[in-house]
Amino acid sequence: xxxxxxxxxxxxxxxxxxxxxxxxxxxxxxxxxxxxxxxxxxxxxxxxxxxxxxxxxxxxxxxxxxxxxxxxxxxxxxxxxxxxxxxxxxxxxxxxxxxx
Length: 100
What we know:
Mean pLDDT: 96
Low-confidence stretches: none
Radius of gyration: 13 Å
Largest sheet: none
Strand content: under 5%
Number of helices: 6
Distance between the termini: 42 Å
């Protein structure tokens, strides 16, 4: 928590994960979303992928498949394998993007 408060991207992402999953803290998707945003703004690919998941499922934020795809794309471009898979799946079924 202290490292996250000091602005360390990895710590913000890790604390966001804890809030998303209720590990050691009360589950709070909004706090997770806010922490992921802070981490993602520093270029953290895992946080970008996690924002895509939250947007795609409407957890802590209004559901937006288009924004989910946008965040999966940003993380995928940084080499994040799960984001690449999620983005490919969106294209495969035409979810948030034209099927391709």
